[in-house]
Amino acid sequence: MRSISIFGATGSIGESTFDLIRRAGGAGAFRTVALTGARNVARLAEMARELRAEVAVVAHEEELPALRAALAGSGVEAAAGAAAIAEAADRPADWVMSAIVGAAGLVPGMRALRHGGTLALANKESLVTAGPLLMSTAEAHGATILPVDSEHSAVFQALTGEDRAAVERVIITASGGPFRDWPLERLAAATVAEAKAHPNWSMGNRISIDSASMFNKALELIETREFFGFEPAMIEVLVHPQSIVHALVGFRDGGVMAHLGPADMRHAIGYALHWPARGDVPVERLDLARLARLSFEAPDELRFPALRLAREVMALRGKAGAAFNAAKEIALDHFMAGEIGFLDMAAVVEATLERLSGEVALGIPAAGLDEVLAMDHLARTRAAECAAHGKKGR
Ligand code: NAD
Ligand code: MG
């Protein structure tokens, strides 16, 4: 029986993963080791009971009594705190879903890789923050990382059976989000509710807003480089409002392999769950005649500076990814709290990178996880300062 763990089980990706596990036989077909969540104790306990998990872990210590109460009599262990989540990743499982949002997903993912199983990686932030470290840890322990981001699953699928040395370019698509057609002046006043309303995908709040600002695509550019190892100049972004073509891979003979699918993350999650086989996944089937039209356009880097910043980060590499992601997380916190405007997010990230480049050699790679976490911490401090400064200036 295959053993599994889900980190971030109560989120959007976590729920979709749970749904697929249940459809594939649930507790009768999988031995569940660990399920984790941040706050939704009742839902986490419900999932842990159904899958008969060994342990359920909640991120915040103060929720432990509530989790214990919700699990009473179930035989499921309860634990709480970031250290307990990392310890849950020390319990070996054959297949681990990494679906915590933000850099908080890095440590559990790194620890899970040490068992040499399969890490289904939705948490793109860990590749942006510590790509080389994550990939070398996987290699050292014989672990497999399977991308769960839809674009990266698409690239992975398009590359299967191909010679990677024959790849000329990789194109990941972006829907353009809710503000694709908005003029720059209007973007400045965009609200949190407007930014959350993604036209095609149903996702967690943070990634939805990142999609509206294109910071999600910026992270994904870096993710493409770190996961597949392609040079930045080979990686392109194409705006494709219908979100049907998720990525394209072009080869030296001029051929292009495209991956198409509905905008439902259960396809990419199901691919990672059943890989290398293809399993039955209950997503809507494409009806291209009904869709009739697929359109593509170049992204506007003036309105979406996140893409330009990602190019700068890729050129620097080193610790720049950790700084970029952390600054972006803080800028997003401030936008969600109503403290800065929509366009200020990119301004805060850019100002943070500028300040940091005067303090540390961003281009020097981190020697280990501690250095990555120190960079993450420093960038959060500087970004909070830049955001506060921006507020005063308005
Ligand atoms: P979400 O906000 O819906 O869920 C996040 C999960 O992480 C929840 O279980 C939450 O309780 C937990 N969590 C949040 N903060 C935590 C912390 N500090 N410590 C421990 N746990 C914490 O997010 P999501 O949309 O499911 O996204 C999860 C990850 O997958 C992100 O990295 C995102 O970029 C990536 N991703 C999501 C989608 C999507 O369609 N939702 C698509 C591609 C990639
Ligand atoms: Mg994606």
From TrEMBL:
Residues that bind Mn(2+): 149, 151, 220
Binding-site residues for 1-deoxy-D-xylulose 5-phosphate, renumbered to this chain: 124, 150-151, 175, 198, 211, 216-217, 220
InterPro entries named among the record's database cross-references: DXP_reductoisomerase, DXP_reductoisomerase_C, DXP_reductoisomerase_N, DXPR_C, DXPR_C_sf, NAD(P)-bd_dom_sf
Residue ranges constituting the 1-deoxy-D-xylulose 5-phosphate reductoisomerase C-terminal domain according to the UniProt record: 145-228
Documented EC number(s): 1.1.1.267
GO MF annotations in UniProt: 1-deoxy-D-xylulose-5-phosphate reductoisomerase activity; isomerase activity; manganese ion binding; NADPH binding
Matching Pfam families: DXP_redisom_C, DXP_reductoisom, DXPR_C
Keywords assigned: Isomerase, Isoprene biosynthesis, Magnesium, Manganese, Metal-binding, NADP, Oxidoreductase
Domain 1-deoxy-D-xylulose 5-phosphate reductoisomerase N-terminal as annotated: residue spans: 4-131
Domain DXP reductoisomerase C-terminal: 260-381
EC class name: oxidoreductase
Binding-site residues, NADPH: 10-13, 38-40, 123, 125, 204
Cofactor: Mg(2+); Mn(2+)
Function: Catalyzes the NADPH-dependent rearrangement and reduction of 1-deoxy-D-xylulose-5-phosphate (DXP) to 2-C-methyl-D-erythritol 4-phosphate (MEP).
Similarity comment: Belongs to the DXR family.
HAMAP family tied to this protein: DXP_reductoisom (MF_00183)
Official protein name in the record: 1-deoxy-D-xylulose 5-phosphate reductoisomerase
Organism of origin: Paragemmobacter kunshanensis
Gene transcribed to yield this protein: dxr
